[in-house]
Predict the structure.
Amino acid sequence: MLRTLFIGVFLSLYILIVGPPLLIYTFITRNPDPIYWAGVKGVMFFVRAVGVKVRVKGLEHIPAGVCLFAANHTSSADPPAVVGAIPRRIAILLKESLFKWPIVGQAFRSAHFIPVNRSARDAAIASVEKAAGALKAGQSFLIYPEGTRSPDGRLQEFKKGAVMMAIKAGVPIVPMACSDAHRIMEKNSLVIHPGEIVVEFLEPIDASKYSLEDRDILNERVRMAMAAALPPDQRPLDFPGATTAEPAGS
């Protein structure tokens, strides 16, 4: 719990000190790079300070051009690891409530993140359409196809928004497999455990070869690629090689 308190206090101070000047700079210059990287590097500094390491694999699989990164979501600990592993500025589809936070919400908007209201279907579709347009215009994105955190670390079924974005924009999807974040911070828990999170970039999948009628096929291909790269206890139970979670203390 002390690790969580440390991050909460010092990250808040960091945001209060660094955030306002960078927001003003972004407003004047229309350049979101400084505020984006200050946020990413700052969060990663505090994550490492509490004993959480991030090991990145497969950087050679990231294409040079615009792409859609798709990652599994198991914990509050995996967004910093996943975003910190991506070596370029990206935009993210985030739940609408996060944009209401002081300073942080303005920073998200300055970095061209897009709010999504998952409880309102029409609003969610509009957010996906807006993100697809930004992809077409040259902005790489990160999305969590499951739509919410897994309760046990195991890969869940995918929503279709990610593949629809990629198909409409004609960009490759880069699946990302994030392992062991749920051991660092369990869902609905504030306790942070020291340990290592592994983030692996997988072979890109060219969405331009698929039509919207093929979205289910592409969705399953992305999900299966991700499942194969995850540890056995994070794979769907019906996937080859899947095992039940390891007993506590093992």
About this structure: The radius of gyration is 18 Å. The longest strand covers residues 172-179.
